[in-house]
Structures are given as C-alpha cells and as structure tokens.
Fold:
Amino acid sequence: MFFQIKSEIDKTFPTCIKLTDNLWLNADAGWKVFYLDEAAVIFKGYLDDTEPTVEVLTEIASSSTPTLYGNFIALVVKDGAVTIQHDVYRSFPLYVDDTNKVIHNLNLPSTHRVPSAYILTVSDSFGLSYVQFDPIGEVNLDPITKDEAIAEIDKILLTRFSSFFAHNTLPAKIFISGGIDTLMCWSYLKKLNIDYEIVSAENINHTQFVENKLSDIRTYWAYNQIHSWETPAVLVSGAMGDEVFLRGPLAGNIWLQQFGTSYPAELRPEHYHYHYHSLPKNQKYYGPEATASKQAAVSKILDLTINDHQHWHLDTTLTFTPFKDIRITKLLLRLSFDDVVGQLVDAEIGRALVGKNFPALLRHLQPQKNKAKNEDINFAAFLDDK
Structure:
C-alpha cells in the first residue's frame, strides 16, 4: 500500500480517488472503497480475524485510536477530513511534506516522519491534527522461564496464523530463504495444515505502478526482498523477525548491556548471528555506552521496534506479517540472562518453536544468517518437506 494524499490527481498511480473537495488519494492497486452511514472508508490490507465488513469498518471509523490486529490502512473520510487509521502496530512509514502539502509513504521529500504512536487527520485545507495513543501498552517485567515464554509466543502465533487463514481466500505463497524467520512461518503453515505454495525465486509483477515507482519502492531495504504476482495472492513473510524476537544488532546489544555484556563479547563463530552481527555496517551499534536503567532500555527497545516498518502490501499481493507483534518482544524482555542470551546470539527460541511445530524443518536452517547466496541454497530440498 504505497500512496500519497495531496491536492492533485497523479495518473502515474493506478488508483486515484477523490477524498474531499481538495484532496486526492494516489496509490498502487488493490484498494477498496466502502460507504458507511456517516463516512467513507478506503481500505487496503487485512485484519487478523475477519474480513473488512461494514460492521468492522464502522468500528474503525468511530474509534479515535487503533484496537485491531492485522496489517492494514483505512482512510476514514468524514466531515471534509481524512483520518489515517491502521492496525495496532502500523506496518508502513508515514511522512508529511508541509512545504508541498503531501502525506505519503514513498521516497519523496518530507518535513517529518509521523511516529507510530500517532493517528494523523488532514483537513480539506491540509490542516493537520494528531491523536496520540499507546501501541506498546502495559509492560510487565516480572520474570518468566524460557519454557513459559515459548508457550506464550506459540499461543500468539498460533492465533495469528489460524485466525487469518480461517477467513483468507487467496492463495498463500512463501519464499524459504533458509533463515530462522521463514522457517518459523513455514512450520506454522505445516502445523495448521494450511495450503501454500513454495516459491524458489523472486517474482515482481511489473504493473503500471511498479514500472513507474520501482526506484522509490527499492529505497526501502525490505522491498529488495519482496514478491508480487499478477493475480491476487498472499505472501507469508518473516518480516520483523530479528527485531521482534530481540535478535537485531541494536536492540539486542542494548539488552545485553543491561547484563554487563555485549554482542562482541557473546558471539562465537558457531552462532547463527555471528556472520551478520559481525558485518562492518553493524559495528556502530556496539558502542561502550549503556542505557542508564533497565526501564529506559525496555522503553528504547520497544519504541525502536514499534517504529520499524518493513513489509506492507504491493498492488494486489497482500503480505501476511505474523511477527509484527511486540507482545512477543515484551515476553522476551522478562527472561533471565541465561534464558535470553541464546536467543540473541543463536535464535534458540525460534529454533524451539520450529521444533515444537515440525522439527524436520530444522535441517533447512542455514548455519549463519544472510551468509549463503541463493545459488548455494538447495531449494529442491524444501520441496521434499512440502
């Protein structure tokens, strides 16, 4: 769902919808328009547990802050203004260009980025107002064991997979990279007997929008690893796996410093994250300064995670992003050092979840994150476990 809201129609986009007297939505394909009693809603994406019915959209339109899970945007047009609503954990970045009066999530000039804890409303004359909400919620730091964390994370993911695929009617596709996050996704598809197709190569459907905006799309690093197809489909994505599962170099190191250590001190050559976390681009995250307190470190990690946007949707391909859920991160922050360090350096909890669901898939895990090249991966072996 790539879009811009401004005062002019832009025919380089396939979707152009007049929102108010002076505001247009210019966007990629795949948006739907719903007319309610007191508002119109322009919607794209998915909700975890239901289709976007009139009843659900009325709830979204009448709420000042997000309450639903999924990966969606809902432009609520009411009383000459447009409110940009979304799910609890917004998947897409949101920028404002005050100079040219444009709101967008493209590689365009911008005055500022809107944090994920704010809902933005724009009036017909481009007056902006914001409502702040708390996407993080209560943070409980009472200790739990690794087994308890695995059980609770498993419940979250089972619910997200089963709820979505109970109502989804589009074909599901997954690209197996050999990384822990796509293996986790694969294991839940298999555990729940969800029908899916394994794709072994990148496929980008060169629609009008992609042809016109590919360079803008590619400026987002995660959109150098995306797929789309000519007919509507669902891509099952491991996006946000590193970040939500506390394995990212910045957040992971912030947390290790709370225990008086760091990634450079803990990583060993046999660890899953040794190669990736040792890359020069990640060295800047391992400075000697530690966040002052545990609570400050928790707040920083959760804020970083909630404002990390990776995969939303491209044209008529929806991207299912079950790991976009900081309830998982909050559980990991309750573990002792002995229980959490293996997750940070070697994806131990991710491995345990795969083992719980379908242990045979662990044979496909690459020994090092992002080290193997596509030509070195045995995609035929994935089909053996389809």
Summary: The first strand starts at residue 3 and ends at 6. The chain has a mean pLDDT of 95.
